[in-house]
Amino acid sequence: MKRRRLALLSCTGLAAALTIVAAFVPIPQTPRVALGVLIVFVLPGFAILSALFPGPQLSRGERLLASVGTSIAMTVYVSVLLGTTSMGLSHESLAVTLGATTIAASVLASFRARYADEA
Amino acid sequence: MTRPVAWPQGHEDSQIQFKWVSIVALCTAVGLGSVAIADVASRQGADYAVTSVFFWVGLLLIFAPIAFRILSNNVHPREQLALVVLLGVALYVAKLLGSPDAFTGTDEYVHLRNTQDILRTQHVFNSNPLLPTAAFYPGLGAATAGLADLTGLSPFVSGVLIIGAGRILMSACFFLVAERATGSARAAAGASLVYAANPLFLFWSSTFAYENLALPLAAFVVWWLGRVRQEAGPGPQIVATMAIVAVTVTHHVAGFALAALLSAWWLAEIVIRRSGAELRNVGFMAAVSAAAALSWLFFIAKPARSYLFANNLVPELQQTVSVLTGRTPPRHLFTSGGHVSPAWEIVASFGAISVLLLALPLALYLAWTQRRRPALAVATSVAVIYPLTLLPRLAPTGVAISGRSSEYVFAGLGCVLGLLTAEATWWRTNRRRLRPVPAALTRWFGWRWVAVAAALTTFVFVGGVTIGTAFYERLPESSNPQGYPWSVQPDVVSASQWAKEQLGINQRFAASWIDASALATYGEQDTVNENDIWPIFFADTVDATAVHAIRSTGVRYLLVDWRMTKGVPPTPGYYFSPYEPHAGNYTQAFSTRALQKFASAPCTRLIYDSGSIQIFDVTLIENGSCVPALTSTARNMRSLG
User: Fold this and answer.
1) Range of the structural domain that residue A45 is part of
2) Which among B145, B228, B238 has the least Cβ separation from residue A89?
3) How is the beta sheet containing B613-617 ordered, strand by strand?
4) Radius of gyration over alpha carbons of chain A, in Å?
5) Run of H or E including B390
């Protein structure tokens, strides 16, 4: 169970990193759409929830639903927040913000999952 | 105290029946096909009597099989949840089939403009000429712009994905919240059906509008808090706060409704349970929600106050009171712009309302027997408002407040009526004596209770659709409409794109309210509030009133749509503004002479002429360098002045 969670978190972090790269390097449309949809609708929420709830508190279905809800919520307020800054809301700023948050949360979640394992 | 069920748990004696799921999914697919045929035929100008058959058959094929299956006995809760989500998505697709390549709803243009502005400027809080308040709640526009920018998809496709994700979130979270409130997956299934039967669910709740993202996020907050409030640590609060902030920056009423709901939940917990960490968590999040909504309204979205209260809520309530006291005649129901709804639809509408009103007392009785459940107590307090929300429908402008409230009121109404569907269908399995349902009646019906419950919810759904949207607006308008159209026409889109290319963006335009939607989005022009510019078009000559309106509003271009002279305006019953003469009471089309004046006036210049659409340059009048010969009345007025 935990091994699968760690694998999922690794994939999440990797996808987030690719999203950041894709914001600065031209890539084909299909992977760009796939990465964009994942970073807006699933990945940040999954990483944050894994960091906050490393144990079995949530079932798979609940985790998926909460990941979608949290990701959309995060996209909304991060987009609005970026839109009020001088940096502005662009694909670069959004990809970096959402991607970096996802990577950071994935790393934290991995540590917490391992710590929970040892404990 | 027993801990409520967290996620649909399988009954020991039930499992997901993939055979039934496949059959129901097939019916849904066939239903969508039928709706698609209706849409295509309607676009090609087929008669409504024919297209409506395909439309209604399609909707029944979507709704009725799902209703029957999820209300049946021994259905696994996860199957019920999956079918509830399927219903939500299928009805969303049914709406999309009507406009599969562009936004066409009135509110959709408002938020498309928000999205375009954010994409262009990379900043929020740009001025929105279609609805200034919308610019101060940029959550939907910013998220859509972000997705469009990240993926390279169009704003339309990005918006469809965002609202679609919201629809899935709403359907799933509402089912789970209802399950927690009622303690029964079957009651939650009934609640979800009743909620899907609310008059706005099929069309309005599927549009690209800020409320349709904020409400799913609010439902997510409620589900999330109910699910994890017993968990230790800051995790539950962090996630809930993120979602509450997202609701706050996305929609005003949803933000306040969420705060009110959480406060009511907290109060119910105080009265019923009186203590515990759960109580503190709900109370804290209620305070966060209320503080966020109020702070945003008073410090950021200042224009929203007058929009919500002075422009909408107060006048509509005043008019409702005026109708109830006999000072204002009631609105003619089911008539609009010379159209009268088919007789069976009127019967279905009143029938659906009657079913809900008749079922409500029984359902309230059931809710009373379970009054120790705080969430159900909150749902009950919302459900009892339902009869009152019908009253504003009688007022000429009250339909907005009555219709829009259904998205909120049906949440409580669904939970309470869901109890009734569960009790009725639950009878057969458990053989327990039920209080409100006469035993003789249940024996007579036997297993047919399921069919009766499914048929009644389907009937309420049909009635809800007939109430929620004028019959002629349920299917796409013909590409060559007779009379005055109710939707943006392709030639107006072409004119708007021409204006963008030839005149540049952000030019001040005056146009009818339908055409203004295209100008503000496809043309990215700054259309002027229709309440201020209607005198320009109504005068028979370019007189002092028209000149004053042009100068005071700074209008530089006029878009003239000659189709106004072909027919009276459909819903909402005016060409430009509710303040124009004959608004809501048109019996004749717009005066041809009033539109002819622009071609003959000396200070105007025709710069675009294609079919029914003309664009006039009135810059010379606006900047005062040319003064049209005024009529004698106007000259007299000026000399007196």
Assistant:
1) 3-118
2) B145
3) B526-527, B508-510, B557-561, B613-617, B605-610
4) 14
5) none
CA-CA distance, A75 to A98, in Å (whole number)? 7
What is d(CA A83, CA A89) in angstroms, rounded to the nearest whole number?
5
- Residue in A closest to B225 by C-alpha: A66
Q: How many domains does chain A have?
A: 1
Angle between helical axes of A60-84 and B155-182 (0-180°, round to 10): 130
Question: Looking at this protein, which amino acid is placed at residue B482?
Answer: Q
Cβ-Cβ contacts under 8 Å for B198 (sequence gap 6 or more): B205, B406, B407, B409, B410, B414, B464, B468
Judged by CB atoms closer than 8 Å, whether chains meet at A89 and B150 is answered as: no
Partners of B610 in beta bridges: B613
**DSSP secondary structure letter of residue B613:** E
- Of the candidates B25, B6, B446, the residue with the CA atom closest to the CA atom of residue A58: B6
Contact B222, B261 (CB under 8 A): yes
How do strand B613-617 and strand B557-561 relate by DSSP bridges? antiparallel
Percent pLDDT > 90 in chain B is 73
- Alpha carbon of residue B212 to chain centroid: 7
Which residues of chain B does A62 touch, with a Cβ-Cβ cutoff of 8 Å?
6-7, 227
Output the pLDDT for position B9: 45
Phi, psi of B86 (to 5 degrees): -60, -40
Number of H helices, E strands in chain A: 5, 0
Residue type, B72: S
CB atoms within 10 A of CB B595: 17
DSSP 8-state code for residue B395: S
Q: What is the pLDDT of residue B233?
A: 82
Peptide bond into B361 cis (omega under 30): no
State how far the Cα of B509 lies from the Cα of B12, in Å rounded to an integer: 66
Give the model confidence (pLDDT) of B343-354 as tens digits. Answer: 999 999 999 999
Pairwise CA distance, residues B247 & B627, whole Å: 50
Is residue A68 within 8 angstroms of chain B, CB to CB? Answer: yes
Which residue on chain B is closest to A27 by alpha carbon?
Answer: B151
Query: What is the DSSP-derived secondary structure letter of residue B263?
Result: H
Q: Is B149–A90 a contact, with Cβ atoms under 8 angstroms apart?
A: yes
Q: A6 CB contacts (<8 Å, ≥6 apart)? A: A110, A113, A114
Nearest by Cα to B397 from B338, B330, B341, B305: B330
- Residues of chain B contacting residue A75, judged by C-beta atoms under 8 Å apart: 143, 146-147
Whether residue B244 is predicted with pLDDT greater than 50 in this model: the reply is: yes
Dihedral sign, Cα of residue A25, residue A29, residue A31, residue A37: positive
- What tens digit of pLDDT does each residue of B24-74 get? 999 999 999 999 999 999 999 999 999 999 999 999 999 999 999 999 878
The residue with tokens 């709804």 is B341
Length of chain B: 641
B292 token code pair = 């966020």
Q: Which residues pair with B31 in a beta bridge?
A: none
- Say which DSSP state B4 is in: P
Residues of B in contact with A112 (CB under 8 A): none
The amino acid that residue B498 corresponds to is W
Indicate if the pLDDT at residue B163 is higher than 70.
Answer: yes
Of B165, B159, B100, B167, residue with least CA distance to B407: B167
Q: What is the DSSP letter of B12?
A: T
Residue type, B161: L
Q: Are B126 and B504 in contact (CB under 8 A)?
A: no
Quote the distance between the C-alpha of residue B583 and its chain's center: 23
Quote the ipTM score: 0.96
Q: State mean pLDDT over B489-512.
A: 97
Q: Which residues of B touch A68 (CB under 8 A)?
A: 165, 168-169
Q: Decide if A65 and B172 are in contact by the 8 Å CB cutoff.
A: yes
